[in-house]
Amino acid sequence: MVIDILLQVGLMLVSVFMFLLMHNIPQKAFARFRAYRSRSETQAKRHFVLGAQLFSQAQAQAQANNKDAAMALAKSAAEEADKAIAINPKDAAAHILKALALDLQLTLLGLSRIYKLRALIQPLLKSRAAYELSYLILSLTRLTNFSGDSRMPVQGFRTSALDSFDVALSPMAAKSLSNAERGDALFKRAKLKVDMSSKGERIDSAIADLVESVKLRIDNAKAYCFLAECYEKKGMVVEAKSAYEESTKVQPEPMTSAAAIEALKRLSL
User: Fold this and answer.
1) What is the Cα–Cα distance from 257 to 246, expressed in whole angstroms?
2) d(CA 68, CA 73)
3) Could you tell me which residues come within 8 angstroms of residue 224 by beta carbon, excluding any fewer than 6 positions away?
4) pTM of the model
5) 218-236 pLDDT, tens digit each
6) Is 251 left (phi over 0), alpha (psi -120 to 50) or beta?
7) How confident is the model at residue 21, as a pLDDT?
8) C-alpha closest to that of 231 among 186, 267, 268
9) Chain-centre distance of CA 47, in angstroms?
């Protein structure tokens, strides 16, 4: 009895399978799925490309000292990156774009604070000392909760940017990055970690990122210099000197090379 029932069920399944195969239903379903996936990937790429263009424009406006325009463009770039992430969360490039856009917004907020301080102090001092004092005040107040011209906490920008880098460098998304891109992302994440460390609690994590970064991209002199600075903060003089020496061997920018040479002289005293 049981065997008869099983045979009938088996014959029914075979009949259904043959019917589907004769009418190409599995192939049609798979083709539709691929078409839907292709459209989704195209939309995600469209948002990413638009976001990258907006970010490039934001950088240009920031260099031209047009802070308001740069801020608006950076916000739009972050929004486009969010749209790309919503469609394809495994694309590391979109997460990195979002992190860079947020970091640029943070930089622009800091510049805005400097200019406001200069405007307040300059009429009083009437000298270049006003500019130096404004930078000093900014360095003392850089850990305040709000930026002064935005409702979003400065720490919120850093945390969101760090989260984006974490996702981009996760096993799920990192496969889409080249070694050089991963190295750059690790370097930028390390800088964020140090900026967020008021008492040096993230230095060890930043050093781990930087060590991996210079392995993946050995020509990044800035990464070597920043690694050396982190070693100095930890009191690891030998490691710091080695990192500074490496930075001078990879044909860096003149300013980076000069800073590394000066640091080596200081550590050799």
Assistant:
1) 10
2) 9
3) 214, 243, 244, 246, 247, 250, 260
4) 0.69
5) 889 899 999 999 999 999 9
6) left
7) 62
8) 267
9) 17
